[in-house]
Amino acid sequence: MELHLIRHPRPDVAPGICYGQTDVGLAECPATVADRLRPLLPESFALHASPLSRARLLAEALGKPRLDDRLKEIHFGDWEGRSFDDIGAAIDDWAADPLGFRAPGGESPREMAARVLAWLAEQGNRGQTPISSEIGVCPLFRHPEHLVVVAHGGPLRAIAGHLLGMPPERWLGLDFGCGQVTRIDVESWGVVLKWFNR
């Protein structure tokens, strides 16, 4: 099975603004991005997306997506819409605990990853006998269709990092480019990163 992970097009937001689940606009046309990506995708696929408009609009330009709140970006709570300069020294607390830190009123990267991986396990179990979704066991190899996911940097890092067997502390190193696609092939014998950020 081919899994294609697409980050939404470039958002229309000033540099240095924390936007997480804030529903910001787009700085590039989703139809143009879809036309550019379509030749890289399989002929037929199941399409899933975050309901935030920056992901949803691209997904709708590619087909008829199944929207799922679990694919939303991390929720930064009181930090949403603020500049990182205004947030100040609290950023140091996040740097000290990059997976466990939670902005006031938000969620931690670990909590975000848990909801995303619950979605991933559900896809692996769709129409099949339930199989384990523990680390090291790929839940997708029995999926009957190729999958295309249009979402955000945080959720895509969790999906790719988990499938590739990377420790969660290393997931932040997976830098998904806006409007680009990454392909991971999932087989019964293992997982292969075919290409990244095309």
Automatic annotation (TrEMBL):
<dbReference type="GO" id="GO:0016791">
    <property type="term" value="F:phosphatase activity"/>
</dbReference>
<dbReference type="Pfam" id="PF00300">
    <property type="entry name" value="His_Phos_1"/>
</dbReference>
<dbReference type="InterPro" id="IPR013078">
    <property type="entry name" value="His_Pase_superF_clade-1"/>
</dbReference>
<dbReference type="InterPro" id="IPR050275">
    <property type="entry name" value="PGM_Phosphatase"/>
</dbReference>
<dbReference type="InterPro" id="IPR029033">
    <property type="entry name" value="His_PPase_superfam"/>
</dbReference>
<dbReference type="GO" id="GO:0005737">
    <property type="term" value="C:cytoplasm"/>
</dbReference>
<protein>
    <submittedName>
        <fullName>Phosphoglycerate mutase</fullName>
    </submittedName>
</protein>
